[in-house]
Structure formats: structure tokens, C-alpha cells
Specification:
The complex is a heterodimer of chains A (93) and B (417).
Chain A (H helix, E strand, L loop, with lengths): L2 H19 L5 H6 L1 H14 L2 H18 L26
Helix pairs in contact in A: 1-4, 3-4
Chain B lengths: L8 E4 L5 H27 L7 H28 L19 E2 L4 E4 L8 H19 L9 H24 L16 H19 L15 H20 L7 H29 L4 H15 L8 H19 L1 H6 L7 H19 L2 H4 L5 H29 L6 H6 L1 H6 L5
Antiparallel strand pairs in B: 1-3, 2-3
Helix pairs in contact in B: 1-2, 1-3, 1-6, 2-3, 2-4, 3-4, 3-5, 4-5, 4-13, 5-11, 5-13, 6-7, 6-8, 7-8, 7-9, 8-9, 8-11, 9-11, 11-13
The chains are: A mainly alpha (93), B mainly alpha (417).
Chain lengths: 93, 417
Amino acid sequence: MPDMDRLAVAAHLHVLMRRRLNRITDMEWMSTNREYAMAMVRLAHASGHADLQEWAEKLERAWRLVADGVVPPAPRLPPAPPAPPKRYVSTLR
Amino acid sequence: MALPPAPVLVIDAAQLNSGDTAWMISATTLVLLMTIPGLALFYAGMVRKKNILATMAQSFAVCALVSVLWFAVGYSLAFMPGNALVGDLSSRFLESVVFDKAAARLSVHPLAPTVPESVFVLFQLTFAIITPALIAGAFAERMRFSAMLWFMGLWSVLVYAPVAHWVWEPSGWLASRGVLDFAGGTVVHVNAGVAGLVAAFMLGRRLGYGQEPLTPANLGYTMIGASLLWVGWMGFNGGSAAAADGRAGMAMLVTQMGAAGAVLAWMAAEWLVRGSPSLLGLCSGAVAGLVAITPAAGFVSPGSALAIGASAGLACYWGATALKRLLGADDSLDVFGVHGIGGIVGALLTGVFASPVLGGAEGKVQAQALGVLATVLYSGVASAVILWVLDRVLGLRVTPQQEQDGLDRSLHGERLE
């Protein structure tokens, strides 16, 4: 499954988790980082929602293809730009 | 026609001043707009997305609740003579308000003798509404809705009405000691700021406070809210002249100067300290200046107003940042930092800058300090007692799961998509 398809599956799961669990996820990270993706898959399975479980299985399958070497892992992302100063942690202003 | 209780007078309709009445009706509308939707938007923009609707619901519900309580006892406790500490119940259920169309007679309050008492009651009600609504910013994102309603209702009757009586009713003990508070620097802002700080301490910090960013959902809402507050404040301070006259005009002019001075001062301080001026800082500066000029509005010149505004801009920036860290309370939206500190600065500087030529009264810093001290003590202790009782009886705070899910969904069953 090409990268774009994995991203599309992650996007579906992202939307469903927002709707069903009020949980905000990072869909791009879900499609590029296996560990994070599996953690979200476990959450989706534990939720008991059939549609969430269905898309979690699809994402799991997509990542299995990477593990089996059928598709290459996503290229490494360029280094992140320097983080902006930390705001809103203890004060709003 | 039954006679109204003293000191309310029944006069011929012809004795009213239609200009004053028209202005007071307009000012009342402006002040009501400050709470709904002004304050609701101002606060809603600063909370996380999952709490926007719940924050708006608080302002809206308080508006309705306080209106009914004002009708029942609030107005009477605040504006009937009673004793030096609290008004009597002679105007409970607004029994003093008289309007007889056939006889062309109606009641007026001595504090606004040229407008119908009905307009005076409503104008003062809009102040009674916004004051507790301000407190909600201090405990945003974590208080149970039912506990909030009980707190707001009890606070309105037991704290707001007596303090308004002390300062504004001529028989009040602070009024008789020469404390000047033109439109509510002490009654509204110091009172709400201190109650907010106490509430923030008693409810405890939000989950994740100090560890993760609690990012404001939409500062665009906050800017719209701040603008409505700024415009509405023209009615707040201008209407407190109780007439459409030169004093009202002067109050509006100094209101604008106070806000402008504070916006620029806050902006400069933030630019210097953080390296960039933020929209939230500009909005906060405006509110800080408006708060500080409130007690002084009918007593000071435009130049003094600029000085008061600039001082408040700097002091409130400190209040919402360094002082906040020092106090350690999670005053979510900086009610104490902006309203408490701004109110104190404004009240004290009213004593410095008040001109007898403009306002007919000389300012005394000592008297102003007494007004601040009395309000801080009474509001602090009474708010703590009310919250302590409610915590025992109802519980103040939502469960961690409800807080995590967001109050929109967990308390109101609604959410923004």
C-alpha cells in the first residue's frame, strides 16, 4: 500500500476518533510512525466502536505491508524547524 | 396609588428629562451588550475548543439568573436606604417601581432623578449581571454548571448588593467616608477580581496546568469580545453620569483615553519582554485600561485618564504574568490580574487625579485605599465561605473525565465541530 493510501486510512481513523472519542490525533504521524500508529490502533480496538475497529484493522494491515517489505517505509521527514517559544503553559498572556 | 418606600419619589411624567431618559436607555443597552455577547466571546476565545460553548453558557445563564434575583431582592438590598451596610427590603420584587400612565405619574430614584426608576433599575441590573459573569473567567474549564449557578446567585445577593450599597447608596458607609467610585472600579472590578482569585484557589488548577500548553481556541472571538466591551464601556461609564450632559461626555472621552493608554502600555511592555506584541495583549490592555478608568471616569481630565490607563496597562501586564506565577493559582483567564489589579490601580489613582472642578469632589487616596481594602476583605472572605459551603453540599468541580472530555460535551451535551 503506497504512502498516500496509508495516509488516507490514517485520516479516516483520525476523523472517527475525533467524533467517537473526542480524541485529537496526528494523522500524518500515524502514517509515518509505526509505534504511534499501533498505539492509536489499540485505542480504537478498546473503544468498542465497530467503525473505529474496522479502520484500525485497515491501518494495522497497511503497516504490516511495510513490515513485510511489500512497501517501503515513509521517507524520513526533514528536521523540524526550531520550536516556537513555549506559550500558554502557566500563563495565558 | 400606593406610596413607594423612601427614598423613591413619585413625580409627574412632565418632570422627567427625555434626553437623559433616552441616553440612559441607550447606555443600558450598551452595558447589556458587554456581557452578552461581549464577555461571552471575550472569554470563549481564550479557553480550549472543547470548552467554548460551556464558557458562553455561563455568561448567558448568569444574565438570566441575576435578572430574576435583582427583581426579587438585589435592587432593594443595593439601592434602598436600610443601614450603612445593606439596603432594606422595601423594594423587594421592585415594589418601589411605579408607573401610572393614566395619571402621568411615575417613580424616580434620587440617584437618577430625571429618568424613570424602571430605567435606573435596569441600568443598575446590567452592572449586577456583568460583575459575577466576570468571575467565571477565573474558574473556566473546570466548574460544575449547577455549582456555578448557585455560587453566582448567592454571590450576587450576599456580596455584590451589599458592596454596591456601601459605595453607591448615599447612606452606605464607604460613600459617607468620601470613597469615589464613578462607575464601579471597586464595586465591580475589585470585587469580581478578588472573588475570582479566591475561586481559582478553591477549585484548584486545571488538569495539565503548568505542564502542557492550554492553548486558546480562537483569539478572534476574544478580539470581537474585547471590542464589544470597549464600545459597551461607553454606556457603562457614560451612563453612570445618569444624565445626557457634559459629565457623561467627559466620562466617555476619558474612557477612550484610558483604554488607549493601556493598550499602548501593555503592547510596549509585552514587546519589550517577549519580543512581540500579541493580539491577546492588545485586547487585555484595552480591558485593563477600561477597568482602571471606571472609578475615575466622572472625576478626571483626559490627560489624567491617559496616565491612569498607561499605569494600568503596565500593572495588569505584571498582574497577569509575574504576579500570577507568584500567586500560583490557576486564575484561568486572569480575572484578578486584569480586573483586580486594574480596579485597585484605578481606585487609588482616582484619589490622586480626581478634580473638584470636573466631578465636584476631591479625591483622597486614603479614602480610596479604605474602599479597596474593605472590598478585598469582604469579597475575599464572603466568596470563600460561599464556595466552601457549596463544595460541601454540591461539589464545585467536574470529574477528571468530564474535564478531559471538555465541558461542552460532558456538561451540556453539545460541541463545536
